[in-house]
Amino acid sequence: FFKFHNKVNNTKIIHPPTISNVAPPAGVWYNFCKLKPLSPKEAFEEDLLLQSIAWPDTPPLQSLSLRKSSDPAHSTFTILGRMGEGQWQIGDKMEVIIKMYDFQGRPKNCGGDVIVARLHNPALGAGVAGKVVDHLNGSYSAVFSLLWEGSAQVEVILVHPSEAVTVLGRLTREQPDRVFFKSQFRSGRVSETTTCNVCLRPSRQPVCNYTELHTGQQWFCYKPEKLSCDARISHSRGGFTQNITAMENKLFQSGVNLKVSIQASGLANITVLQQKKGKVSLESGPSGYYYQGVWRALGGTTVWQFNTSSAITQCLRGKVIKMYGDSTIRQWFEYFNGEFNLHSPKQTGPFIALDYPNNIFLMYRCHGPPIRFMNVPISEVHYIANELDNVIGGSNTVVVLGIWSHFSTFPIEVYIRRLQSIRSAVVRLLSRAPETLVVIRTANPKALNLYETLTNSDWYSLQRDKVLRAMFKGLNVHLVDAWEMVVAYNLPHSLHPQPPIIKNMINVLLSYICPQKGG
Ligand SMILES: *[C@@H]1O[C@H](CO)[C@@H](O)[C@H](O)[C@H]1NC(C)=O
Ligand SMILES: *[C@@H]1O[C@H](CO)[C@@H](O)[C@H](O)[C@H]1NC(C)=O
Ligand SMILES: *[C@@H]1O[C@H](CO)[C@@H](O)[C@H](O)[C@H]1NC(C)=O
Ligand SMILES: *[C@@H]1O[C@H](CO)[C@@H](O)[C@H](O)[C@H]1NC(C)=O
Ligand SMILES: *[C@@H]1O[C@H](CO)[C@@H](O)[C@H](O)[C@H]1NC(C)=O
């Protein structure tokens, strides 16, 4: 997983508050949006998380101009020579320096560009994600672990210029409601629809408060004129209010400055030799890499290949697999459902698939608001934390979680609050049934156009992904590193990764479930 190191001296020391003498903080405000206050302990964690994802300063809104913004066409990268010279060997780390220039060809002197990098060899089906470091002066390093013998080619992609990050930040601050939702209310023949959100703009209209008491997750709809708040029957994605200036618009142009490759100033590839001696150091390296199209994890897990339906069935025999999250988790359910050849409709769910002869129970349920699905009946609007509290758990139970993409447009604090509630439920589950296997799918980069960017940019996903990883660190949960698995594969980024990537993800999942293959 790549990281942007914020080298700004960010050493504000915060002492953990003691519960007794510190009043709970007053909550967080985003424009008109007030988020519920956290307990001192949670607020302390939130502070640390916010510091850990602090993005370098980007140019101020007032001074944005396309001409002075980062231009991938003028920018270049250079492969640095091998330390201690000689030829590249497996186990080495290779560094690439990326120099950013603006549209006038002038060197950039601030950081904050969003850059991803990979090293790959299409013929070998090999690929690995690089770790990008922001030097905050217009140059960046991408560091790669060399993991296969033969040719390796560097690819560097500018996802967003730093100027675009300024705009993305503004949108969240000023319009945390730009993605909005609808609920239908019905009683007898009367039916009404109103707008709903995490926060509603103040108005004279009365509001229904659907804040969920057990998990504390806030949710509001405007009250229908005739019907009562109790008459709510469904939740839906409402729409999106796009509100950016013509100038800002120029910072998000496909083929110009939105997910565009940066070219090498010299060679973009190297040749890697067999390692002569010594051990491969994988310290702070990637979580895995592809070789012959197959994901190999580096964290100590052996990824087995479950190539046939019978291998999958054998692994899952006697298991209860409960999947909760967004459509990227539903994709996994659909993969299995295809394998078992059980047919169920493909909308919002929940879905269940059963394999009677092999005693396999498979279930998918979407996460709660702000899920952007259409027409979720209110009786099916469930929060993951509450669902987990109803899981008995045990050695035959697998819980799979994936929740990230629908939180992009909201303040990060909304996501932190959601994960805090889910994590508490995971901790309760693992303490009552420690043998339960919990697997979490991380976020991944996706195809971006202007609309996709403003509602779901990789920059938003990246920030949320860092928070997710930090919050579950140290718990007995397993990650499927969707971020690196998508960056490293030789296919375009996609919100719903293409079948070969899904197959690899499922193999990682199954290898957690069946560490002794077929066992
Ligand atoms: C930017 O910072 C890096 C790391 O400190 C340094 O190596 C490099 O020379 C600097 N580049 C410029 C143009 O100042
Ligand atoms: C909504 O309800 C929750 C839970 O009862 C409460 O804590 C919160 O203050 C309410 N919010 C508003 C704006 O009324
Ligand atoms: C659109 O942006 C302008 C300027 O930032 C702001 O005044 C206005 O309230 C925004 N409109 C909406 C619907 O968010
Ligand atoms: C790098 O790529 C070029 C063009 O594809 C190729 O001709 C060359 O042999 C490669 N060099 C190495 C060191 O792999
Ligand atoms: C499974 O499929 C992969 C990728 O297609 C292939 O490399 C591997 O040999 C297969 N393994 C088995 C055990 O069939």
TrEMBL record:
Secretion signal span: none
Pfam families cross-referenced by the UniProt entry: Neurexophilin, NXPE4_C
Residue intervals of the NXPE C-terminal domain: 305-514
One Gene Ontology term from the biological process aspect of the record: nervous system development
Top-level taxon of the source organism: Eukaryota
Family named by the database record: Belongs to the NXPE family.
Record protein name field: NXPE C-terminal domain-containing protein
Native organism: Oreochromis aureus (Israeli tilapia)
